[in-house]
């Protein structure tokens, strides 16, 4: 069993081994002791995938929205700018940030496997790793965006970025209108994982009142 992934060329999609081992050990321990049923473990993983993990990325985006110097640095050398906020680690060594504008919308995919910037986004969502998303994000990005409820005008150019082990991408969503007076913390609450992958926009303050 253990040798089967040995020569797999896309090994880099796996989460850092120590994290996996810790999670596995914790899972088996908790389940064994009858403290946690497997469904609760699922909820825990969901929390990392959708709530806790992407908060790091959300803070990076919010900082870029309020701090022009940081944003410039982020677009020039994302790895260093992100590291300056304390988010570093395996699967995030080489980061590139691409900025959405009214003219251009960016979408991130990993066609080979599921490379993903762990330190800023946590665990990759199941759909991101799925073959249909990986194929269609390249072949029909507009259609994929539509399925996520993201309708773009015909005049908006869509650029698809293919993550690799060498380079992982993070989308800097457009700052929603009506947030001029907002604090960095309030802004970060509008930044979703999906908006940093590029399948959705950041939440707008009036459209998405719920936190």
Rg calculated over all Cα atoms = 18 Å
Shape: globular
| H and E string | HHHHEEHHHHEEHH
Largest sheet properties: 2 strands, parallel
What is the SS-derived class?
mainly alpha
Distance linking N and C termini: 44 Å
What portion of residues belong to β-strands? 5-15%
**Number of helix segments?**
10
The strand line-up of the biggest sheet is 1-4
Low-pLDDT regions: 1-11
**DSSP summary, beta strand count:** 4
Mean pLDDT: 84
The helicity comes to: 40-55%
Fill in the keyword field for this structure:
single chain; 211 residues; mainly alpha; two-stranded parallel sheet; two-stranded parallel ribbon; 4 strands; disordered N terminus
Structural account:
This protein has 211 residues and is mostly helical. Helices cover 45% and strands 10% of the residues. The protein starts with 16 loop residues before the first helix and ends in a 14-residue tail after the last helix. The relative contact order is 0.16.
């Amino acid at each position: 069993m253990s040798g089967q992934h040995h020569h797999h060329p896309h090994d880099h999609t796996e989460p850092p081994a120590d994290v996996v081992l810790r999670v596995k050990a914790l899972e088996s321990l908790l389940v064994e002791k009858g403290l946690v049923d497997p469904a609760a473990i699922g909820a825990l993983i969901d929390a990392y995938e959708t709530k806790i993990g992407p908060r790091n990325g959300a803070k990076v985006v919010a900082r870029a929205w309020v701090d022009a110097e940081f944003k410039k640095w982020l677009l020039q050398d994302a790895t260093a700018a992100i590291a300056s906020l304390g988010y570093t680690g395996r699967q995030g060594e080489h980061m590139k940030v691409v900025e959405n504008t009214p003219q251009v919308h960016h979408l991130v995919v990993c066609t080979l496997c599921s490379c993903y910037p762990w330190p800023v986004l946590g665990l990759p969502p199941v759909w991101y790793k799925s073959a249909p998303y990986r194929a269609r994000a390249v072949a029909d990005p507009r259609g994929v965006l539509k399925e996520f409820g993201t309708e773009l005008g015909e005049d908006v150019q869509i650029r698809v970025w293919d993550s690799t082990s060498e380079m992982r991408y993070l989308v800097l969503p457009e700052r929603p209108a009506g947030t001029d007076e907002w604090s960095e913390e309030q802004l970060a609450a509008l930044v979703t994982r999906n908006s940093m992958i590029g399948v959705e926009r950041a939440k707008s303050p009036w459209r998405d009142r719920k936190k």
